[in-house]
Amino acid sequence: MTGRAAPSGPPGDELKTCCADAYSSDAVALLLGDSYHPGGTALTRHLADVLGLAEGSRVLDVASGRGTTALLLAGTYRVHVDGVDYAPANTALAQDAARAAGLAGRAAFTTGDSEQLPYPDAVFDAAVCECALCTFPDKARAAAEFARVLKPGGRLGLTDVTADPARLPAELTGLAARIACVADARPLDEYAAILAGAGLRTVRTERHDQAMVRMLDQIEARLQLLRMTAAGRLTEAGVDLDAAPAVLAAARAAVTAGTLGYALLIAEKPESCSPG
Amino acid sequence: MTQDPPPRRKVDRDEVFVEFTKSICPMCKTPVDAQVNLRDNKVYLRKRCRAHGEFEALVYGDAEEYLASARFNKPGTIPLTFQTEVKDGCPSDCGLCPEHKQHACLGIIEVNTGCNLDCPICFADSGRRRDGYSITHEQCARMLDAFVASEGEAEVVMFSGGEPTLHKHILDFIDLALARPIRNVTLNTNGIRLATDKNFVAELGKRNRAPGRSVNIYLQFDGFDERTHREIRGRDLRAFKQRALDNCAEAGLTATLVAAVERGLNEHELGAVVEYGIDHPAVRSVVFQPVTHSGRHTPFDPLTRLTNPDVVRLIGEQRPDWFRKGDFFPVPCCFPTCRSLTYVLVDGEPGARTVVPIPRLLDVEEHLDYVTNRVLPDARVREALEKLWSASAFMATETTDAKLRATAEALDCADTCGIDLPEAVKDLSDKAFMIVVQDFQDPYTLNVKQLMKCCVEEITPDGRLIPFCAYNSVGYREQVRADMSGVPVAGVVPNALPLADRLADTAHGSRTLRPDTVAATAEQTP
């Protein structure tokens, strides 16, 4: 998603690889911590609560990263979780984490593409996707895949960056995507429309913009810590320390202006699925 | 034709009732029922004494945070021994009685009542009058033994007063503490002797070098305006404070700046105190204490007094580049509304500092949530944070250094993400600075719910451990002083504006019930 890796024109697989790379690269891991999305595990719990996950149900975690959410769901809500991520490195780390937590029996991880989910039709009671749809190049295709693998009556729980791309400041359309993945985020109603196009009916939306502010604070604090202790390594990892303050300031201003935020959305697949 | 009166309509109360608890009458100290109510996102404690009427005080400036902090209430630890029995119930059986919910994180020994100042604000009602007491060598040993019997291995004891540096045996007392399983000693002082007696400071420095032990200075430090000094201390002590700290730095002693903060006096100086502390080589922490309206103090309005969230807000307003909402976190060992604190990492030169609050780096909330956290977080990180977010946390002690290191390791994700931070980040304790906000309770604000989990205890010469806020509020301080000195001591009543016409001065400058008020009380009491 840097200028070099995301040429103009249809980005396709190259962009997906780039974004997955960014998310599995060390610098991003360090900056964003164990839980790569605004709201952290507290918002994940809230998401699970509003989804009403029943014990023993089968849940899909799309863009499962290092498995933090999947393991939380498997451990706390006693559900069976399949995690799918585009980065093989993440799959391996998530599998290790599952074994270490004694949850390997309830949490399985696979490398795969959110636009071609490696699962049969109508097998999941619920699916979660945190801070990832905004990074998917073909969002309609991903939404259709969510709909396909959900059982009739199954629910999708989404938390994601919301942005009004036309009004985003220039600082947030380039390098910043790598830090906060905002470049291809959409307004909340557009996410709902994309899901509706796939036959998923939005039943609940919540704004969590403060979670975005807190994540910006956390990123800034981590950058400052690294500047104190390991400025050279940050540069090596490709984080432009000099650009960071302006990007963060622009992001804060955008949250205040309402052009950037974070939201939760619950959508349902109808009981009687229309053909096609 | 007569018209019917308009139908009477029910109206809603203007407050949310959230707790039923116990408190005391601020005038006669009798235990009374109390209720906690929320109005305008603030928390108020209200109570009624059958003899003296109704009283209300602001206890927390942010109702949302008050309710949210309930999750950060750590299960208490049972002390090894109790000193009293349950007889009349809290707060009359101190202490500690078997109903107390927490052990002593911090034990306080007041070595005397005498002082070389007569501060207009002094919860201990100390001063230059010679009608008080000093403890003996034997009494100090007994007090320390009582503390060790209760704690086994104790983390920290504080010597206080009066002015403890005036006690001719204070160095012996410190030695008595260091000869026992007590890891750290902190000396609570106005700094005059530290500023003027370099030999004394050198003696303290020597004791601070004992392996595995530390002696730290808890220096009264209220601000920089001359008015602040005159109104709180009765004297301009600015030069003394500076010299005291310079002498500490020279002797290798670490100091905490302790500010009593009063509305309308020095609430504008909080940011400056933090910055001064960060810049001074001897200072590793700052403690802000809204003035405890026990003992001697200036007149105040209980409904607009300063509380922890107010102090935290003021710090943020005065150093907006450094602090934001959410940077301070409640301390789970006591009741979470009693104390909030944060650690910051500091880098750069004076005037161009980078200040990074640790709660922004690490989700402290995730680790110290004892109620909604159903998956246990990393036990080592939790244990480290529990020790750091504690009433026993003092900077430059072995325990705090070790726990800061453990926290730094939690930030360092070498295992999972391959970036191995250099040694510098593992020795974060050099860059770490602690800021504490502690609202002690007084006879107006006392809530037995909080008192029952208090972890800061006054050790009495007869070997009891009395929660600090009970000692100052319920009448224990007056009893101990009378017993120890043989001079009768009047019951102290807060110098609150609503009580002004019912109070008279005591010999020590605090306030007590006016004699005719006492008589009226006696008639009304059945």
Automatic annotation (TrEMBL), chain A:
The keyword Transmembrane does not apply. Keywords: Transferase. SUPFAM superfamilies: S-adenosyl-L-methionine-dependent methyltransferases. InterPro entries: Erg6_SMT_methyltransf, Methyltransf_11, SAM-dependent_MTases_sf. This is Methyltransferase type 11 domain-containing protein. It comes from Streptomyces cacaoi. The keyword Transferase applies. GO terms for molecular function: S-adenosylmethionine-dependent methyltransferase activity. Residues 60-156 form the Methyltransferase type domain.
From TrEMBL, chain B:
Keywords: Iron, Iron-sulfur, Metal-binding, S-adenosyl-L-methionine. Gene3D superfamilies: Aldolase class I (3.20.20.70). It comes from the Bacteria. PROSITE patterns: RADICAL_SAM (PS51918). Transmembrane segments: none annotated. Pfam families: Radical_SAM, Zn_ribbon_HMPTM. One of its GO terms (molecular function) is catalytic activity. Residues 98-324 form the Radical SAM core domain. The keyword S-adenosyl-L-methionine applies. InterPro entries: Aldolase_TIM (IPR013785), Methyltransferase_Class_D (IPR034474), rSAM (IPR007197), rSAM_sf (IPR058240), Zn_ribbon_HMPTM (IPR056488). This is Radical SAM core domain-containing protein.
